[in-house]
Amino acid sequence: MPSPHDLLKSLHDVLSKSIFFSSVPMSLLLIGLEGLIEPNLSCPCSEGWNKPLIALIFIGPFLFTFALMFILLRPCTCEHRCSVDPKALLKCLFPPVMWIIILLLDGDYVACASTTWKGNYASSIQSIRKWCVPSNLSLTEKVSDFQFKYQTFIATSQIAGYGGIIVISLIIICVGATYCYEKTYTETQGGAEDGAEDGAQGGASNGMQGGAKVEALWEYFLDKSMI
Q1: CA distances (Å), 51 to each of 30, 46, 114, 120, in order?
Q2: Nearest-angstrom CA–CA distance, 25 and 176
Q3: Confidence band (pLDDT; 50, 70, 90) for 155?
Q4: pTM of the model
């Protein structure tokens, strides 16, 4: 599973190859993106710092990637009056939402924010994965109990991440099905209208031809009568 920093690195690689980013403002945005790629999570394991740090990790790149996509796609246009393109706006929201889902699937970020005890962010003998190993335990407290809580936080975060993937998948399927239905309905209506027009034109043509034949016969009859 790719880490959040791998996602940012891939986004940076794609955007850096775009001609649009040759301008100075976009170059400055890329520098900021490079700064987000470098650091790795280091949970402070302090109740007063955990939640603010993780909140910034969630919100900061979310707004940053949304701003990049907003500048690229420009879903809002203001000529005679301002209007918003819903499809372009959804495209702008897709990378930021994926950023949130990847953080949830990683699990460590939500687990860090949920930690209420003081400790050191390191790997213990029982676990290779880094977590907030508690310090200054009392005689009745066990490290395994805190580790179980931390693993529960990770599992809860991953469940939320997979739930988000399911919701997004259902939305995409519904939007795709609606688009296919509207396209098929439009083509069917267009074919029916074309058939009706062809039928009307054919009927009028046949009527005109029939009228011309009757008129020719009537003229022929009058000519004979005059003779």
Answers
A1: 27, 9, 7, 16
A2: 35
A3: very high
A4: 0.66
